Amino acid sequence: YVILLDPGHGIDTEGKESPLWNDGSQLKEWIFNRAIAKKIIDILNEKSISFKLIVPEDEDVPLRERADRANSFQEEIKKPCLYISIHGNAADSPKARGFEVFTSPRQTVSDVCATIMFRIMEAEKLFKMRACYQDGDPDKEAKFVILQKTKMAAILTENGFFTNEAECKKMLAESFQNKIAEVHVKAIEKIIKKSIDFLVKIYY
Question: How many angstroms separate the CA atoms of 67 and 83, rounded?
Fold first, then answer.
């Protein structure tokens, strides 16, 4: 069982940064995403959980190429994988804040994984939780390429709004980033424990 990590947008993706705040601080999403991914990797290594960093580059990698990399890797290793794409969020309103987790439309095993991630993040009280219960579970559904073209369970986490000054300041703090990473790994551990039999039935 292998965790595939995708640290979202790259250095050359325009507009993925917070305003420059009065204290001179600014969050660049590509740096934030990679910091969270690196912290997740450090914990996975400590716990001997298998993983692969799908996008090791700092540069942006086209969405379809990311999906192709993940699909080729799973085909090569012949094991169930879980794809996690890590992001910071943005909105026109500076008041928007909170955590979201996305899956592709319709009910799949990804929804099971997303619900586990949502509930563990909710229990940690790091964010306001932004849910959509239209289909009975808290994940939001979107036709994102990375969720539709990957041939494995895939979720995308939005870990706070960097357009909200108060939340952005928290997101810039390493101690807060550590907590975000720890929640991701807690969810990964529970997904492995609770969903492995279900996943194996789907993939084999």
Answer: 9
Cα 23 to Cα 20, 165, 169: the distances in Å are 8, 11, 10
Q: Are 85 and 10 within 8 A, CB to CB?
A: no
Instruction: Choose among 66, 31, 63: nearest CA to 52.
Output: 66
Per residue in 118-136, pLDDT tens?
A: 999 999 999 999 999 988 8
The pLDDT tens digits of the residues spanning 7-34 come to 999 999 888 999 999 999 999 999 999 9
Q: Report phi then psi at 164, rounded to 5.
A: -100, 115
d(CA 71, CA 203): 12
Tell if the pTM clears 0.85, that is, is over it: yes
Q: How far is CA 21 from CA 29, 166, 169, in A?
A: 15, 10, 9
Specify the pairing of strand 153-161 against strand 99-103.
antiparallel
Cβ neighbours around 107 below 10 Å, total: 12
